[in-house]
Fold this protein.
Amino acid sequence: MRRLTRFARWLTMSSSLLLAAGAASAGFAPGPIALAVDARDAPSKIFHVRMSIPVSPGQLPLSYPKWIPGEHAPNGPLTDVAGLRISGAGKSLAWERDLVDMYTIRCTVPEAVKSVEVSFDFLAAAGPRGYSSAASCTPELMVLSWNQVLLYPAGQPSDKLTYQASLQLPSAWKYGTALPVQGESAGSIRFAPTSLTMLVDSPVLAGMNFRRVDLAPGATPHQYLDMACDSKIGLAMPDDQVTKYRQLMAEAYALFGARHFREYHFLLSLSDHVAHFGLEHHESSDDRSWERMWLDEDKRIAASNLLAHELAHSWNGKYRRPAGLATPNYQEPMKGNLLWVYEGLTQYIGFVLANRSGVRTPQQTRDALALAAAELDNRPGRTWRPLLDTAVEAQLLYDAPPEWASWRRGTDFYNEGLLLWLEADVTIRQLTRGKHSLDDFCKEFHGGPGGPPKVVPYGFEDLVSTLNGIAPHDWRGFFEARLHSLSPRAPLGGIEHGGWRVAYTDSMSPYMKSIAKARENIDLRFSLGLLVADGKEGQGLIQDVIPGSPAAKAGVAPGVTLVAVNGRRWSKEELLDAVRATKGGEPLELLVDNGEFYRTSKLQYRGGQRYPHLVRAAGAPDLLSEILASHAPPVK
Ligand SMILES: [Zn+2]
C-alpha cells in the first residue's frame, strides 16, 4: 500500500470529486436548493416534502441518499418514497428510474426552465427493527433524518451543495437540533443555508413533551441534552444524573483537549415505540431509549453506555474518519475495513468516559467488561471468521438475523475493538512505565486545533505511526495478529495485563441482572448455551443457542419455544432452579415446541448456573482502575 500524506490524500480525493461532479449532473445549475418539510402529520407517520432545484436545460439526474453515514450501509429507505412528482415552469416533467441504480431518477429539463419543483411523501416506518429508517415517530414525538426527505443532483459532492431547509411541526411541539436556525414564523422553522453534508448530519428531534438540560452552563461551546418523551414524567432526569452527564462533557474535553463542534446536542428520544439505537453526528447524536429510562434503574443502567459512545464519535468517526468511510456523497460505496477503529475505539473511549464521569460505577464498568469478554470468549464463529472480516462485511451484518449469533459472528468489532484498544492502552502504559497512555494517542490523533466540524481521513498506517510516536512498538504486528486471528479464545490480554481476569460464579452481577431485565431475557449462554425471551411477547422463545453447548448438543435450536422443564410447565424460576440443581446431579429435560412439533431434549450438563465477573489477578498492578479514574476536575 502506498502511503500518502494527509495533504496529498485530500488533493487526490478532491480531483476525483470534481470529475464525478462534472460528469454526472448536467442539468443542475449551481445555487441553493430549497427544501420544505411538512411534518405536521408525523404522528400518522407521513412527511410531505417540496423542493425547488436550480437547473439548466438538459438531462437532470437526481439521487436519493443510499449510503447513510454512521450506519455504514446502503440502507437509505428508498421504498418509503411515494407520490414523487417533478414540474418545471408549471408543467409536469416525466421521470424515469435508472435500471441499475434504483436510487437515481432522471428527467429532461426544457429550454428556459430555471428551476424544477420536486414533491413527494416520505412514509415513515412503524416497525422497530433497523436504524434511522425504522420507527421514528409516535403521536408525541419524532426524529427527522434529513437524508430521508430529500433528493440531490446526482454525482455532486455533498460539501458543495447548499440547502435552505424549512420545517413545519405539529402545533405546540418543541424541538432540538444542532442545525443553525435563521428564524421562526407561523409554525415554520427556517434554518440557515447549509451544506448538504451538514444538513444530513443534523437531525431534528421534536415532541409535545420536551426538555432541554444545559450540560455546560455558562460555557462555550454550548452543550445540551435535548429530550422528547412519550410522557411528561419520563423527562424527569434526576439531578444526580444531570451532574454525571455534565461531568461526561468535561471528561471528553479533558481527554481530547479540543472540540470539533460549534454546539453539541444529545437528541434523546424516550419511547418504547421507536427503534432503539444511537447514531452519531459531528454536533449532535440521535439517541433512542426506553420511555422510562430515567425512572427505571435497570433501564438506565442498560443504556449507560449510549450517550458516552455517541459523544466519543464526534472525535472518533466524524472528525477523524477512515478514508474508506469518508465518501464524497451518499451514493459512493463505503468500505468498512477500519470499523474496528471507528466503532471499536469509540466503544473503548465511551466505556472509559462513562466510568470517568460517574455515569457508570467502577463495579458496573467491570461487570460490563466481563460480560463483553465472556460473550466473545464463547463464540465458535471466531474459528472461521477473523475480526477484520466482521468489519468488511459490516454493511450486511448490521441487518443479519440474531439467531446463531455466536457462530455467524456479527458486528463483533464493537466489543472486540474495546478489548483490542484496552490491550493497546495497557501496552502503552507498560512500555512507558506509566508515563504515557492511550489518552496521549487521543490528544494527538483526535485533538488538533478544534473549531467547526471537518473531516480528517486516515488509514491504518496513520494509526501505526501515531502509536509509534507515543510508545515505539510493533503496532502493525500487534493489530494484524489480532485482526486475522482464528483462535477460539478472545483477546483478553488487556484485562489480564490490566490486573484482572474473567471468572465464572453461580451468581449474576447486578449489572447483568439489569441488562437481562431491561432486555427481557434469561441469559444462560455461559451454562446451557441458551438465551431465552422473558418479555410480555414471545415468552419462552429460545432466542439463541451457542453451537457445541449442552443445549445445542441436545438438539435445542433458536426459534423454538420452551414448553416445560423436567415435565412441568416452564417458568423463569422453574428453569433457573433446574439449572442450579444440575450441580447436584439432577437431570435436565426441556420440552420445546418447534413449529407445532414437540420434542424432549435431555441435556448432559452438571455445571449449575454460570455468570462472568472480573476478579483481581494476584500480584498484577491494577492498570484498569488507573485507566478508569476521573481526569477532569469535578463539575458543580
Ligand atoms: Zn458507534
In short: Residues 1-24 have pLDDT under 50 and may be disordered.
